[in-house]
Amino acid sequence: MYVRTLTGGLAAAALVVSLSLTGGQAVAAPTDAQDAPLAARVLIYDAKGSAEFKSAVDRGAAIWNESVDAVELRPAAAGQRANIRVLADDGWPRALPTTLGNGTVYIGRQAVDQGYDTIRISAHELGHILGLPDRKPGPCSSLMSGSSAGTACTNPYPNAAEKTEVEENFGGVLVGRAPAGRAEVIVD
After folding, report:
1. Which residues pair with 105 in a beta bridge?
2. Quick check: 44 and 61 in contact, CB under 8 A?
3. How far apart are the C-alpha atoms of 100 and 170, rounded to whole Å?
């Protein structure tokens, strides 16, 4: 499990929340409360409908877990409600984010049939659910360059800028905040 430390405005907000009234006086929490750890936001994904791509989806989620601290993707347990549904279909891969950390991903067989890497597709589409836009055209070193990097590109890892953007998106974000400009379908 990843842990973040509250800093800046979040630390001040935590300090204000931790104030208690005792005898009509405000008493602040000890100074070390400003360094209290903040657990990663856990997002549950359901890959039961991803058919032959389930292992690629699990690997794409694991790559994000290895790459960032502010969010953790976990597979859904039986009967558990998921933030992210992952489905396979015969179209082109795409993501339909609803709010930050929530939505549906389609792993489209059309791109796989054309030679695109399934793990890169999975990590890329999950990147959209984590609030990242496409960055096309782009080099293979950019996960969010998607198909513009070509079929020879199998890099499933986000670059430093993409990692930072996800960390910023989830660092202390309130649940349900819509990612900026992400109400539309993202087709890669």
Report:
1. 86, 95
2. no
3. 8
Cα end-to-end span (Å), the chain: 31
The pTM for the full model equals 0.75
**Each residue's pLDDT tens digit, 77-121:** 999 999 999 999 999 999 999 999 999 999 999 999 999 999 999
- Helix, coil or strand: residue 188: coil
Is residue 75 within 8 Å of residue 86, measured between CB atoms?
Answer: no
Percent of the chain with pLDDT over 90: 70
Amino acid occupying residue 97? P
125 is catalytic: yes
SS3 content of the chain, % helix, strand, coil (to 5): 35, 25, 40
DSSP letter for each residue of 52-121:
GGHHHHHHHHHHHHHH-SSEEEEEPPTT---SEEEEEESS--EEEEEETTEEEEEEEHHHHHTT--HHHH
Helices 54-67 and 160-170 cross at an angle (nearest 10°) of 80
Task: Of 128, 165, 167, 169, give the one whose Cα is nearest residue 146.
Answer: 128
Among the listed residues 52, 66, 72, 125, the single catalytic one is 125
